[in-house]
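Example record

One chain of 109 residues, shown exactly as stored in the release files.
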Amino acid sequence: MGEPRPGAPLGVAVTGALKAGDVIRLTRAASPQFVRPLTVRVIRELTDRHTYHGWVWVEGYELGRNGMALARRELFVLREGVRVLPPTPTITAQPATRRLGRTPVRAGA
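Predicted structure tokens for this chain:
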């Protein structure tokens, strides 16, 4: 998803465990490896791996500009640098409506 638009919300800091479905933004604040910011949809936080204080392993899908998954990744990040993005509204297709042809009804036929 590249760089955010000017004035776009950058997300909020993580205040607990990451959960499946969270969309997070990873920048250099999360790890020096993210020279180019990365947007990830979380599969799960890997809590069974022991790490340095404040660091976590996250399994997720790297998202492209269109919001579709590009690659599955396991990422080692500084929790303090992870930003949770607000959920995007899902657009559902409206069912097509068709005009019903009216036929005259005979009363008392």
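Notes: Residues 1-9 have pLDDT under 50 and may be disordered.
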